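Sorry to interrupt, but I need a hand with the structure work. Can you supply me with one protein entry, sequence and fold together? No commentary is needed, just the two lines. Leave the record below and I will have a look.
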Amino acid sequence: MGNFPIGLPNLRKARPIVVGNGFQVEGSFSMFARRREAEAVASAELTEVKGELAALKQMLDSMPVNVMMCELKDFSITYLNKTSIETLRKLEHLLPVKADQLLGRSIDIFHKNPSHQRRLLADPKNLPHRARIKLGPETLDLQVSAIYDATGKYLGPMLTWSIITDFVRQERDTKRLMRMLDDMPINVMTADKDTLEINYINRTSINTLRAVEHLLPIKADKALGTCIDIFHKNPSHQRRMLADHRNLPHSAKIRLGPETLDLRVSAIMDDDGSYIGPMVTWSIITKTVQVIDSFEQNVKTAVESVAGSADEMRGAAEVMSNVVQETVVQSETIAANANEASANVQTVAAATEELAASVAEIGRQATQSSTVAQAAVTQAEKTNVTVKGLAEASEKIGAVVKLINDIAGQTNLLALNATIEAARAGEAGKGFAVVASEVKNLANQTAKATEEIAGQITSIQGATHDAVGAITAITQTIGQINEIAGAIAAAVEQQGSAVHEISRNVQEAAGGTREVTNNVGMLSRATSESGAAVGKVANAATSLADQAALMRREVDKFLEEVKKL
C-alpha cells in the first residue's frame, strides 16, 4: 500500500502528536510567535488531521480487503478493519480467541514459532513479504507491507490478507487441468483472436511437430508466439474464418507433404460468453487414412463376398429344400415299402413256421412210408416166393393135365378100336359098341376138359409168370420207394434244419425290417426336421443377404462419416 498514512497532510519539522488509537502525526509550530496562536493553529490542524484520519479509518473499514496493523514494539494488534473482523468471525472456530477479542492481542498467538515472524517483521528490508498459511482446512494469503512516516521511519507492518481456499482449490484444479492439457495425448494449440499468434501449445503438440519438423517452415520449439499465417498459403481465408466464432467449430483435413493432418478448430469463450480465441486440436492421421482406405477396400470385398456367399447359400438352400422334399416323398415311399416288407416278412415268418411244421409232418410220414415200404418189400418177397411156388405147382398141374390128355387120347384110341371091334362083332358087339361109344365120348370130353384145363393152366402159368415178374418189379419198385423214402426222410431232415435256419433268418429279417421301418420313420422325422432346418437356412441366407446389403450401406455410410472426422 506504500507509505502510511495515506492522504495525511505533509507537516514538516513536526513533533509527534498521538491521535486516536495510537496513530501519530507530525507538525511544526515554529512559524507561530505566540503559543496561543500556535495552539489555535495546532488545534485547527489537529481537527483537520482527525477528520482526515477518521475519513481514512472509514475508508479502511469500508475497504473490501482484510487489513490488520500491529505495534512494532510488542507486535500487538493495533488495528482491524471491519472486513477483517467479519472475515475472522467466519474463522472463529479455528482461532484461539474470538474475533472481537483480537484487538490488542499479540500476533504470537497465531504462530507456533513467533520468533521467526518477529525477526521477519522487525526489519523492513524483509518486506514486502507474501506467504500462504494453512488455518485448519482453510488457506490464507498474507501480504505484509512496511508502514513509514513522512520522514521514512519504519513504523510497523501492515497485513492485508484473504481467505483463498476456493482460489487455491481452483488454482490447483487449474494447474491439474493445465498438466492434463500439457500431458494428454492430444495435440492442442490456441491463438490470439486478433493477432492469431500461438499463445499456447501443449507438450504433445511440440513432440508431434518434431516428428514432422522437416516439413515445417520453423522449428517445433519456435512455434509458440508465431503467427499461424506461416502455415497457410492463403492466410486471409483462415483469418476470416477464425475472426468470427460463429464459423466454429470447424473441421478440416490438410496435406503436409506426404502426411495427412486432421484439424478441429473450436471457439474459446470466457465466462461472459466473449470470444477469446480459437483452439485447434489436431493429429497426424496418415496411417489412419491408409488403414481406412485399406479397410474400405477389404470390407467392400468382404461384403461383396458375403453377399455372393449369401446368394450361393440361398441357392443351395433352395436346392437342399427340393432335395429334402424329394427325400421326404422317398422316405414316405420307403416307409410304406418297409411296412409292407415287414408285413410280408411277418407272413413269410408265419409261413416258414407252418412249412417247418409241414416239413416235420412230411418227415414223419416219409419215415412211416419208409417203414411201410420196407414191410411191403418183405411181403412182396414173400408173395414172390408164393407165386413162384404157384407157378411151379401150375407147371406140375400142366404135366398132370398133359398126362390126363394123353390118357384121354389113348382112351379115345382104345374106344375107337373097341368100336371097330364091336362093329366086327356085329350084334354081339353092339353093347360093347355102346360102351365104347360112351368111353369115346368121355375120352373126348376129358380131352376137351383137359385142353381147357391146359389152356387155363397155361393162362395161370402166364399170369403166374406175369405175377412173378410184376411182383419182382413191385419188389424192385418198393425197394426204390424205400430208398427214395429214406432219401426223402434224410432230405426232409436236412430241409427241416434249413427251414429252421430260414425261420431264424426270417425272424431276424423281421426284426431288421422292423428296425428299418423304425429307422425310416426316424429318417422321415429327421428329413422333416432337416426340411425345417433347410427352411431356416434359407431364411438365414435371405437374412444374410439382406444383412450384407444393409452392411454394405452401413459401411459406405461409416466410411463417409469416418472420412468427415
DSSP finds eight helices and twelve strands in the chain. The chain has four domains: 1-62, 65-174, 184-284, 294-559. The radius of gyration is 78 Å. The first helix runs from residue 35 to 62.
